[in-house]
């Protein structure tokens, strides 16, 4: 397997720095243990209440889920919908159109992860 990236034109230090900065920004927004798991759960389940989301994202505490949802909402990936007309008040979380722009990234990461796991197993056994 070849580990080189092919660019259309030579990589300058300035372009390299720009790419690194962009990747750093992306990782800052969606990085960490839980954010992509939450985004994927919302994509797959549609409108979902907090407790149900916590059950789906196994292992996450209520406090961490709350903080991650606030962060995802600030960055435009999640919308919090409050149904105040119901008693008790119902709060649902939904993924935004903007969060769906991550689908190609998630699919590429999934494919890469599958290949990586296969390579590791082949190297070990």
Task: Using the CA coordinates, give the radius of gyration.
Answer: 19 Å
CATH level 1 name: Mainly Alpha
Return the string of H and E elements. Answer: HHEHHEEHH
Q: Supply the helix-strand structural class.
A: mainly alpha
The largest sheet is: 3 strands, antiparallel
Secondary structure elements and pairings:
Elements: H1 13-30, H2 35-45, E1 48-49, H3 50-56, H4 62-74, E2 78-83, E3 90-95, H5 97-100, H6 103-124
Antiparallel strand pairs: 1-3, 2-3
Would you write up a description of this structure?
This protein is mainly alpha-helical. It has one domain: Arc Repressor Mutant, subunit A (Orthogonal Bundle). Helices cover 60% and strands 11% of the residues. It is built from 6 helices and 3 strands; from the N terminus they run ααβααββαα. The chain has helices spanning 13-30, 35-45, 50-56, 62-74, 97-100, 103-124; strands at 48-49, 78-83, 90-95. The chain has a 3-stranded antiparallel beta sheet with strand order 1-3-2. A hairpin with a 6-residue loop joins β2 (78-83) and β3. The longest helix has 22 residues, at 103-124. The radius of gyration is 19 Å and the shape is globular. The two termini are 18 Å apart. The model has no long low-confidence stretch (mean pLDDT 90).
